[in-house]
Predict the structure.
Amino acid sequence: MPGKTSLQAETVSLMSLLEDLQKIVGDGRRVSASPSELYCYTFDASQIEGRPDVVVRPLRTEEVSKILKLAYHQEVPVTTRGAGTGLAGGAVPLKGGIVLDMSTMNRVIDVDVANIQAEVEPGLIRDDFNQAIKPYGFFFPPDPGSSAMCTIGGMIANNASGMRCIKYGTTKAYVLGLEVVLADGTVINTGSRVLKSSAGYDLTRLMTGSEGTLGVITRARIKIAPLPKARWLILTAFSSAEEAGRAVVKVLSSGIIPSACEILDKTTISVLKQCDKKLILPDGDVILFEVDGTVASTEEDAKSIAEVCAPTATSIRRISSQMEMEEIWAARKLIGASISRLQPEKSRVYVGEDVGVPIKSVPEIIKKVQEISDDIGLPAMKFGHVGDGNLHVALFIDVTKKDHWNKLMEAADRIHLAALDLGGTVASEHGIGKARAQYMRRQHGPALDVMRVIKRALDPVGILNPGKLDL
Amino acid sequence: MDLPDINRCVRCGTCRSVCPVLQEVGWESAGARGRILTAKGVLEGKTVDSSALQSLSTCTTCGVCTEICPAGIDPVEAVEKARGLMSNQGFFLPDHSILKEKVRTTGNTFGDIGSRHGWLQDSLSQSRQGHPARRKAEYVYFVGCLESYRYPKTAAKTFNILSRFGVGLLEDERCCGSPLIRTGFDATDLIDHNLKQIKASGAHSVIASCAGCYATLKNYYPADFETLSVSEFLARKIPDLGLKPLDDVTVTYHDPCHLGRCNGVYDPPREVIKAICDLEEMNASRERSRCCGGGGGVRAGHKDLSINLARRRLVDVPEGVDYIVTSCPLCVRNLRDAGGKTVDLVDLVDDALKPTLDIRPPDHQLQAVTPSNHKR
């Protein structure tokens, strides 16, 4: 059930809305409807665009509650935004209305080491959170490539993951409880301070990954994990990406769970080398295995992985230097946006970039992506968290050429369908947003109708992030 | 920079993690990614209004976004280009227009009609060899507006050292043009004038005190001469300076953006400092040095923002140091105004050349400049 359109928001008087919002936050500097500001909030990091009517930067739960109460009664759409680094259009206001920029609500409220948790506000940047808890010997493992920018609230709304989730689990494994403001302004608390509870419906899990369509997160209790004492990186190269994928299956089947397992195909390797000439990386299709734990266990695991890969690898190198590991991971994090260094006339467009398949099917999806790329004639970089079946595909085109866009969308569609045919998902970690909404029925079947019932129950007027997830 | 360059921005938001103005102001339009979008709107002729000006005018041009951008684009170049397009269409901050008029009418950013060589009265070298601006020299010292009119003692100290090595002066130096270029105005007349002066001096190398002058002479003037910073020249001459170490002094060094990150000059000032005293690095230094908030026309156009940025920078100062040393008078000015005990590299060198160990620069040089004591 869609909310009101931008035109209807104007009908209820934008000026009056602005005044009401200014009264709620008590500070005109935290409300804006200036043309340039609205233009900036029209975009996130995806291809989706949608212009808001007004942007508000709340500081307190009370403000969020009053804003939603107002929006609910006036049927004005509300889109929640963290850092706007999402890749599926989740933070883009498709139907105008209000954008809630939560980035100013960014405090660490409490670090409760004895209870292995921390309480934070949603606008807190992931890396800032980790800096705050590192002195206690803990960390928050989910680490998307955008970890220096993305917010905890955005990560929860998207069930974000990243490199280390193969061992440590995704964001949903770490959310113990939430404070959520519902569509009508009601504030609820889900979960609790205990590490496990079986007491009714798990609303925390419902909200996690709901992409701002069921409520606005204003506080989160996050479980934290002890920092490992040691890490090793094992750089392995193979003659083909498929062969590399087979090595991943063998390693995991042998009982070793690496703390990261990343594929970098030949094209990705050449981009990395251009971005940072100091990096020493092998040629070929590469898997980066990382193991963490104690000094003894990591050395043993590194040796075991090298032995498993030896029969098919073209090169193997074990690295224990902290500095070299950090350089390689830092370069890996920025690979997605760096493609234009390889071909300056082309830009990377984030579509078809986040498929996931069961681990055993990893070699198959790699093969299929390569076939699609060859067939359509669009180069594709393959990299990502292949250890949990998540393959990132980077497609790059000359964005000024319409036929390139047509080819791009065809390639993306075929990649999504290939993943679904293998029993996989169109979105491992980037979420559905608008970018992949058209695949919801195909992926979920009748379960999508259950999602729609839940959406109608919690947001009967349809003001929360309308137009997303095919709800 | 054209639209195809701007379109290479994938809006990943990596620049959000480093843009000092975004961290202070919070609005998307106040960050590098937001300014790329604003610049796009300006280049496409879509959004040319006061809100676009607000977004573009808060950029200090510190270049940390350019440093970190994974797509390899230069948001600073986009901002300067968009500022130029906007000023051509009559959109500029009144304070920037006033600054431009001061420069064009008096040749300096203060509108000061006094002699640009007034500081020479403090210099030891004038009386010995005749007016230094009237003799040919292979190296000339480009003093800059700030040193000439606000830090005359630093200008004198600098020239006292440089003239020992035969460095001369331009007869009629005017503003390098940086404040105009940064704020979207044309500086061709200034560049032409200064170029003639440099040619007339016979110099093959120009030495600049100010990081803004340095960056402009190096990157916006024709490559007819070598551009050096004072720190680079001094580093070359360490064995000949006769420096006496200051044993119980520890300083930190603030990398000026337009000297360090934008032009790669990191080591020479550090070499000079380490020849004199102990150095402890700031919490963010070299490529990741945080902006003092003074550049890009922000001090003139958004004074409060400028000082708040300087306050944030002061948080990076390590505990227990005696001074912040830097190699740019605008950084000195802004950091002092925010409460930092800041001296120019030349002040430190001058102390190390004194016959007695008088390690403190005169008190008045460390006072924050306030409206009541600010010389106009």
Notes: The beta strands of chain B are 139-142, 168-169, 205-208, 226-229, 250-254, 278-279, 323-326, 342-344. Chain B has three domains: 3-92, 97-236, 238-368. Residues 356-376 of chain B have pLDDT under 50 and may be disordered. The longest helix of chain B spans residues 75-88.
